[in-house]
Design a protein that fits this description.
single chain; about 375 residues; mainly alpha; Rhopdopsin 7-helix transmembrane proteins; Arc Repressor Mutant, subunit A; 2 domains
């Protein structure tokens, strides 16, 4: 007898939504490698909750032959999480990464073999060797595997985030903060998963209902990943490029080079382009990203983001000093900022106060702030 209660309804509804979003990811032309990996991860997560969706509905009682149906691949979650983090960060997918999926492939092959057994032999195996040895082993290794791979993915993402300021101006836009939140959310899931497994080993077994909260959490995580992953699927990722081979030529005066390029950048107001990247600016200056980055870092002691956002903040400060009554957001967008949040961060980092405070200061005393002097101090 089938029972379509609220548990089945929630898990089934989430499963359908996630699978539809996974299909959309597969059809997204940009960032194809990353999107395909995420789609695979979503399918694996739905495979994890499918036995519970069916179990709450009574499928396994009605159709005992479904025993060993290979829906779940818990050992694949961790490697796919790491693969997606690397793809998001623009790292090339190493050929050896596929080897990390070998345990999951072996487990799936084992499930297919067991699923093909005659009903009596299948049940005897499930109650015997599998239930006593193989299933507990896989269930114990799964949260441990996920913990290790999640930590590696988090380190990959943090390494990528620390480099963003060298190539883009709006670091938050490309930082993958949504993915970072998902990785953090995996921590309590891993802990709960390990706790449930320890409870099962010491108590003699758990039923579907006792594990419900764990799989509701997995369903929520899958839905979050699907929604945010699809929302960011078309985002053009920055390119870090590779430094040129070392040339033992004469030493270069990076301070003088930075001054020359800065004059050209300011003359053309290149910083007003909201999508400006290090590669774009280097091309317009007739150089490469490596030399431009060195000029900024060694000549001005600042990265690309701080340099460009400082110019943008200066433009807003000049407008405020001139008595502009335009909304701050309009001034920020005109200067090249992409959002109010990035504008506020950059302005405070450049001048040590918020743009609202600067406007109030000018309103009460127009001579209270010399933005050019402040910027010169920030660059010195």
């Amino acid at each position: 007898m089938f029972v379509f209660g609220w548990r089945t309804a929630i898990l089934a509804l989430v499963s359908v939504q996630v699978l539809l979003l996974a299909a959309a990811l597969l059809r997204t032309p940009r960032n194809r490698s990353a999107n395909r990996i995420l789609a695979g991860l979503l399918i694996v997560l739905i495979g994890m909750i499918t036995p519970y969706t069916m179990g709450f509905a009574g499928f396994y009682d009605a159709f005992p032959w479904l025993t060993f149906a290979p829906f779940a691949a818990p050992l694949a979650i961790g490697p796919l999480v790491l693969a997606y983090a690397r793809a998001w960060a623009g790292e090339p997918l190493r050929p050896g990464l596929a080897l990390h999926l070998t345990p999951a492939a072996v487990h799936l092959a084992y499930g297919l073999v067991c699923f093909s057994l005659p009903p009596d032999a299948k049940q005897a195996w499930a109650n015997g060797t599998d239930g006593a040895l193989i299933a507990p082993l896989v269930s114990t290794l799964s949260p441990l595997s996920l913990a290790v791979y999640t930590w590696a993915a988090f380190r990959t993402l943090r390494r990528y985030q620390t480099q963003l300021g060298e190539v883009v101006t709006d670091e938050a836009r490309y930082a993958g903060l949504w993915l970072q939140r998902a990785l953090v959310a995996l921590l309590p899931i891993v802990v709960a998963w390990a706790a449930y497994q320890a409870w099962e080993l010491t108590s003699g077994g758990l039923d579907y209902f006792q594990r419900l909260h764990l799989y509701l959490a997995m369903a929520a995580l899958a839905l979050y990943l699907a929604i945010e992953g699809r929302r960011h699927a078309d985002l053009r990722r920055p390119s870090f490029g590779a430094p040129p081979a070392r040339n033992p030529g004469p030493a270069r005066d990076w301070r003088a080079q930075a001054a020359e390029w800065t004059a050209r950048i300011d003359a053309a107001a290149r910083w007003r382009d909201p999508d400006l990247t290090l590669a774009d600016l280097a091309a317009r200056l007739g150089t490469n990203t490596h030399y431009l980055s060195r000029a900024l870092n060694e000549g001005l002691d600042m990265n690309f983001a701080r340099f460009i956002n400082g110019r943008r903040a200066q433009a807003v400060a000049d407008a405020l000093a001139a008595g502009s009554d335009s909304p701050l957001l309009d001034l920020a967008l005109d200067a090249g900022f992409n959002s109010k949040a990035s504008f506020n961060r950059a302005y405070r980092a450049t001048f040590g106060e918020s743009p609202s405070a600067a406007r109030r200061r000018h309103a009460s005393n127009p001579e209270s702030l010399d933005p050019h002097a402040v910027l010169r101090r920030a660059e010195s």
